[in-house]
Amino acid sequence: MMFTIIIPAYNEEKRIGKTLDEFSEFFDGKGIDYEILVIMDGCTDRTPEIVKVKSKKNKNIRFKIYPEKQGKGGALLKGFTLSRGDYVAYTDADGATSPKEMFKLLQMIGDYDGIIGSRWMKGSVLSVKQPLMRRIASRGFNLLTRLILGLPYKDTQCPAKVFKGKVVRDVAKSLVVTDFAIDACILYTVKILGFKVKEVPISWEDKEMSSLKMRKAIPKMFYTVLKVRIKTI
Length: 233
Fold this sequence. Notes:
Blueprint: E1 2-9, H1 16-28, E2 33-41, H2 47-57, E3 61-66, H3 71-82, E4 87-91, H4 99-108, E5 114-118, E6 125-128, H5 132-149, E7 160-164, H6 165-174, H7 182-192, E8 197-201, E9 203-205, H8 214-231
Parallel strand pairs: 1-2, 1-4, 2-3, 5-8, 6-9
Antiparallel strand pairs: 4-7, 5-7
Helix pairs in contact: 1-2, 3-6, 5-8
């Protein structure tokens, strides 16, 4: 059994090294075949240099560099296509989701086609919470996705998701929108394809230095959700 962990990265020189070290050390001790697949998306800092050094030290770290920025959605779809795992996860480069939590998701997937972490279910643990306005924006967007896309999940945006390999590769062929709100679009495509997904509480820690500007992102994410719904009517 091979487990792929995809990490999209855009100018993450301050965090990517630590995140790769944490994931490598954890999974080296689990005795399973794994790969960490870093998709570098139009980076203009030292992220590629750092990842190359890490990959030379650990053969389980692979990477792909795309000179032109295509956004998290485009980077994820590239990762889905390049992944070799029987199970494929994706998470952010900031390390907000620990390797321990990611491994727990893998262990819980069972007969489901996918399992996603939730920061808003009973039993979740938020050791460091997001700022208030970010939480309000996140909850508001989640309500919109539930209404427009008919998704039942309490937290579509949590960067802690594990799917069977076939699922992500089918999604890569079928996804009609790849820009903003990629998590919601992936889950909606998974739903349309008839796969079964379970949501579970997770331990999570907000990290500083996020590059996402909520005032600009939320309207674009809303537009993306509408677009993906219209395209599948």
